[in-house]
C-alpha cells in the first residue's frame, strides 16, 4: 500500500512539474536574437525579426538615453523614457527592459497597467507617493512614499501610479520583466479611445451623468509614455 502511495505521489509531482514548465516563458535557444527590420534576411521570433547573429554589433545592445532629463511641461507633469526592444534591439527574447521617469513638482505617472510585465521602481531623486490596486473583488490599495534609494514592486497587470509629493523635480528608474511590457493608461484608454466608447456604456459603468462623460471624452489625454 505504501509503495502505491509513493508512485501516485511521484506521478502527481511529475504532472505538476510539466504544468509549471508549460506555464512559464520558454528559455531562448540561442545566445541572443537582435531585432531586425529586414524580414528578407531574418527569422521571426517573439514579435520581431531576428538579425543574423554574425551581423550583430555592440550598438544592438546599447542605449544612451537614460541619463538625460526630459521635459515635464505637460498636462500630467511627467515623461517616460523607455529602454525596451524598440530602443535596444538586442533585448528581443531576453524578457527585460528599463524606463526612466521624470516628474515635475506634483507631477504624476497616471494610473496605468503593464499587460505583459511586473515592475520594480527605484527613486533616484525627490520623493514619490506610489501604489497599486489589487484585482476584483477586493480592490485593495497598497501605497508607500519612496525616497532616494528606495524601491517598490508593481505586480504584472495591476493598476499602479506614481505621484511626486515634493516641490522639486523627481526621477525614478523602473525595471520590467518583458522586452515589450506594453502600457495601458486607464484614463486615456477609457475616455480617449478611438473611436469613442458609447456614452451609454460609460454613464452606466461610472454611474455619472452623460454630461460628465461628454466632458471627459472631450479632453486631450496626454500620452506621457
From TrEMBL:
GO terms for cellular component: apoplast. Disulfide bonds join 33-50. Residues 1-23 form the signal peptide. PROSITE patterns: GERMIN. Oxalate binds at residues 109, 114, 119. Its main location: secreted. GO terms for molecular function: manganese ion binding. Belongs to the germin family. This is Germin-like protein. It comes from Actinidia rufa.
